[in-house]
Design brief:
Layout: E1 4-7, E2 21-24, H1 26-30, E3 35-40, E4 43-49, E5 55-58
Antiparallel strand pairs: 1-2, 3-4, 4-5
Length: 59
Amino acid sequence: MITLALTTPRSLPSDKPVAQRIVVRAVDLLGPTRQVVIEHRGERYVLRLTRGDKLLLTK
C-alpha cells in the first residue's frame, strides 16, 4: 500500500503561493521487486533501488 504525505516547502518567499508536495516512501513505491516502471509521454523508464541503496532511473 502506498501512503502519501503532503509537505509544504519552507524555502519559498512569503509573497509567493505555497505549493504542497506529495511524498512517497521509496519502499512503498518500489515494493518487493525494488523497481517500478514509470510511463511518461509514451516512454517507459525504470526506477530501481541498487544494491548500494541508491535510486537509479534508466530509460
